[in-house]
Amino acid sequence: MTVRIGIIANPVSARDIRRVISHAAGLTLGERANMLLRILQALAACKVDEVLLMPEMEGLRLHLERQLPAAAEESRYPLPRLRWLDMPVRTKTEDSVRAAEIMRREGVAALLVLGGDGTHRAVVKGCRDIPIAGISTGTNNAFPPMREVTVTAWAAGLYAAGRVPDEHALRPNKCLHIRTFGSDGLEKQNDVALIDAAVLNEAILGAKAISQTDTLRTVISTQASIEAVGLSAVAAALQPVGRHDAGGLLIELVPAYGTHEPAAKTFTIQAVLSPGKVEDIEIASFRRFKAGEEYRVSGQNCLIALDGEREIALREHEYALISLQENAFYTLDVPAILKYVCAQKLHEV
């Protein structure tokens, strides 16, 4: 049986306006190619037969293929066969969704995802029941962990090769569902967010990335780490929520512009919204947000941002419902996989 893994590497992650204005470094194509080489060498050690890759138009493939012969000579194990998907590339989020759908049909055991929160959101929309292993290469990386890619790839290869059973390798994750409806009550759009959904007092979809909070009205977060960067950092400053804790957090803010929920008393917190940027944020209220309940957005023109990026323009005659789902998709538990394999080896001694 062919041991097959998919890799979806966003070649333009960490290039948005937030990094430009905050003097944060980005990843060059050369470094992204080096990361892929380290991944391939780790997968080779697990005897992975084939790797499917998402095509791109930025030159990542050229960088990688230039270095493959030397990497193959240095590798102790034969490198996996590489197969670039035959699909149109539009350099949009939909590329990652489409690639995940194709890889799922091709029978990959797992997906390695190189990108930020937005890239991982796109992959989750397409992969369904295929577990993913996140590799952080974006701007706000609240979802993918910061870890050497060799370690993540090694764990993914061990799982794909059947060395670790699902009950030891997989962890369920939460997500938010965002559904929009017209004045006739018919559903217009159904989308997801992995970390947070935010309502902004804005009417026009301009730059996707949120770099300021002066129009930010509501944030619903599935998880909130005190070490996070982005909108979930606002939630963490109020009440940290673990990735695998039940439910999330709903926050009502006091924006400088536009309407907001009435509040008897407000208070101000600080949070890191993007690299190099600590913001003062006025809070009206916050509470836990449970799985199954629905938050309604209606009555005015506004935008809804998903995982830190403006995605949905809602008009006054339309409304949206935001809900939280537990056990929505699976990720590889890298530490648990490696602990299991090490324990099995000790038993064999």
From TrEMBL:
InterPro entries given in the database record: AcoX-like (IPR039065), AcoX_kinase (IPR011391), ATP-NAD_kinase_N (IPR017438), NAD/diacylglycerol_kinase_sf (IPR016064), NADK (IPR002504)
Domain of life of the source: Bacteria
**GO MF annotations, alphabetized:** ATP binding; NAD binding; NAD+ kinase activity
One of the GO biological process terms:
NADP+ biosynthetic process
Pfam families named in the record: NAD_kinase
- Protein name as catalogued: Acetoin catabolism protein X
Q: Which species is listed as the source?
A: Neisseria dentiae
- What lineage does the source organism belong to? Bacteria, Pseudomonadati, Pseudomonadota, Betaproteobacteria, Neisseriales
